[in-house]
Amino acid sequence: MNSSLTSAQLEIREGVDKVCARFGDDYWLERDTDGEFPHAFHKALADAGWLGIAMPEAYGGSGLGITEAAIMMQTIAQSGAAFSGASAVHMNIFGLNPVVVFGTEEQKRRFLPPLIAGKEKSCFAVTEPDAGLDTTRLKTRAVKHGNGYAIHGQKIWISTAQVADRVLLLARTTPLEEVRKRTEGLSLFYTALDRKYVEARVIDKMGRKAVDSNQLFFDGMPVPLEDRIGEEGKGFE
User: Fold this and answer.
1) pTM higher than 0.85 for the full model?
2) How far apart are CA 72 and CA 27, in angstroms?
3) How many CB atoms neighbour CB 127 within 10 A?
């Protein structure tokens, strides 16, 4: 496999592997036993500058591509961290791309640097109990409220919600019966996960215990208008 990589990509593999080498089997066994999020591992990758590998340099990232990010993730998994290590940082690698592509300059400067620096953690909330893999059938609502929205509904299988500071959330702003196509009327938000309005209930599962999976219950969680990513109703796009 290494023979197909460029010298720069091999350097990425070596650099990530040096960080991973500090976290041996004993560390991951402890995390798999106690279920604690691997905060020290996450911080070590942040301190070494790896959490922004595919994010723009203007916001503290490295500006590299998905191939380089995939090399990083494979190196983490191969080190013995397995899926626990990869899942602990995958939101940084892939999750915030909608903010990079569709966010305003103000949003990118507000949201990306804290995530890249490891000062904030995030989760991705799309999947719902009754929607399965058909995202167009989701029922979580974002209702206009003051100068923003209020979120009502449920999400399921949401990783890292126990430790997340923010959530990338897809919700319906226009009822399904009022849109021409089911892909319309969905809006995307990146906002604070306000625990006063959200219950994050852990789901027991086999494997990857260090990275929690959750049901989320939203009861009117407020979201300011400036935390909507892109146009209202165009979140699916």
Assistant:
1) yes
2) 20
3) 17
The pairing of beta strand 198-202 with beta strand 213-224: antiparallel
- Residue from 22, 127, 33 nearest 84 by CA: 33
CB 97, CB 112: distance < 8 Å: no
Cα 196–chain centre separation: 21
The separation between the first and the last C-alpha atoms of the chain, rounded to the nearest angstrom, is: 35
3 state SS of 153: strand
Task: Scan for tokens 């691997």, then name that residue.
Answer: 38
User: How confident is the model over 52-92, as pLDDT tens digits?
Assistant: 999 999 999 999 999 999 999 999 999 999 999 999 999 98
In angstroms, rounded to a whole number, what is the distance separating the alpha carbons of residues 141 and 139? 6
Alpha helices for the chain (secondary structure H)? 7-20, 25-34, 39-47, 66-76, 82-90, 97-102, 105-116
- Cβ-based neighbour number of residue 51 at 10 Å: 24
β-partners of residue 16 are none
How many Cβ atoms from other residues are within 10 Å of residue 72's Cβ? 28
pLDDT tens digits for range 121-173: 999 999 999 887 889 999 999 999 999 999 999 999 999 999 999 999 999 99
How far apart CA 123 and CA 81 sit, in angstroms, is 20
C-alpha pair distances (Å), 215 with each of 19, 54, 157, 205:
32, 29, 6, 13
